[in-house]
Design goal:
Blueprint (H helix, E strand, L loop, with lengths): L39 E6 L14 H11 L1 E6 L6 H12 L6 E3 L8 H4 L3 H15 L4 E3 L23 H10 L3 E3 L18 H6 L13 H14 L5 E3 H4 L5 H10 L3 E4 L4 H5 L2 H10 L4 E2 L8 H12 L26 H16 L13
Parallel strand pairs: 1-2, 2-3, 4-5, 5-6, 6-7, 7-8
């Protein structure tokens, strides 16, 4: 094929950073996928809609059609962490409509701490028991924990605060997992200057920038998470977003090695994983029984296809589910995981933690 001539061009003028939108000139293979290689459990999703905290306002039947088309057999809704009213509404709307297709997690009402003082942990444990009796299948802990949650004296509550031991022990007694999200991408805790890799994203969402006086540094929160997981070996913890530290897989891997009760999901961290594809692939292979699939985006067939392409193929430099704009998100490189590992990540690991049938249904989705 002949390559067209390019005429002379004058020197470029100065370009504002937010106007920079490069188009890749790479010509790379594209692997066509007809669907995931095995049915999937999405272990990290939000269905909030009018009930608070999420995006999904579709009729349940329409949502199920999307999940069927995407090969998702069960979707874990974490929005019960917003409050018991949200949990009850989601149990009524989603769980009752399709019991085998949804799992709803409960949460902790941190705002009630002043009412219960140093006995808050015992009170919260009692509420967790009540939530599970009503149908909750897990506990979701949101990222304000360790950062902005305060006790009755206005003091920050550390992630490993012993006053909460009753909550984690109760989760173990009930046999339910705890999906815990503390901190955020490391760049959110760094100065917003020319060295910050999330500069453009944080300019668009300044409320996400937490490098403020009086708030603990990222490392403090993660050390507290490590302490919490190690102190409660009978409690199953799922560290959201690759253990809350996708930028440092060596740290996450060491915690997985140390604590057999710790697991991670990959939700909304393809950017970090795809920038270190060799390390990420080794990480998943090493911890294949402790890595869970999760998207953390509204259920959508094209979105799921991007996740499947990332996990299943060795394709290079393709847009992620949120695009590939530098400073906001990055192009992906696939991990090309083996089929038996994908079965664990897609289905078996989450099924085991949720107490679902350990074997995925045999049928494959048809797109």
């Amino acid at each position: 094929m002949a390559v067209g001539d390019v005429g002379p061009a004058g020197p470029p003028g100065r370009l504002a950073l937010d106007e920079f939108a490069p188009r890749s000139e790479l010509v790379v293979p594209v692997t066509p996928l007809t669907g995931p290689c095995t049915p999937v459990i999405d272990a990290h999703s939000h269905l909030g809609g009018e009930f608070g905290g999420g995006w999904d306002r579709r009729p349940v039947a329409e949502l199920l059609d999307v999940l069927d088309a995407a090969g998702v057999r069960c979707l874990v809704d974490l929005d019960g962490g917003w409050g018991e009213g949200v949990l009850d509404a989601h149990l009524a709307r989603f769980k009752e409509a399709a019991p085998e297709r949804f799992a709803c997690f409960g949460g902790i009402d941190w705002g009630a701490w002043p009412d219960h003082g140093d006995r808050f942990g015992e009170w919260a444990a009692g509420r967790l028991v009540a939530q599970v009796r009503r149908g909750a299948q897990g506990l979701k802990v949101w990222k304000p924990f360790g950062l902005r949650v305060v006790d009755q004296r206005g003091a920050r509550v550390a992630v490993d605060d012993p006053r909460l031991d009753a909550v984690w022990a109760t989760a173990a007694d009930l046999g339910i997992p705890v999906t815990i999200h503390v901190a955020d991408p490391v760049a959110f805790f760094r100065p917003l200057d020319r060295h910050n890799e999330r500069y453009e994203l944080l300019r668009a969402h300044p409320e996400w920038h937490v490098a403020a006086a009086g708030l603990p540094p990222f490392e403090t929160i993660l050390n507290e998470l490590e302490s919490l997981v190690a102190r409660h070996p009978a409690t199953v913890f799922i560290g959201a977003h690759v253990g809350c530290y996708a930028e440092n897989l060596a740290w996450v891997s060491a915690l997985l090695d140390r604590c057999s009760n710790f697991h991670v999901d990959i939700a909304m961290r393809l950017d970090e994983l795809a920038r270190q594809p060799y390390t990420a692939r080794r990480f998943v292979l090493r911890h294949r029984d402790r890595v869970l699939f999760g998207a953390d985006l509204p259920a959508d067939v094209p979105m799921y296809r991007v996740y499947y392409r990332f996990l299943e193929t060795e394709d290079e430099h393709f847009p992620g589910p949120c695009g590939d704009a530098p400073g906001r998100c990055w192009p992906l490189t696939g991990l090309g995981l083996p089929g038996d590992v994908l079965q664990d990540v897609y289905f078996a690991n989450a099924a085991r933690l949720l107490g679902l049938a350990a074997t995925a249904p045999a049928e494959a989705p048809s797109w």
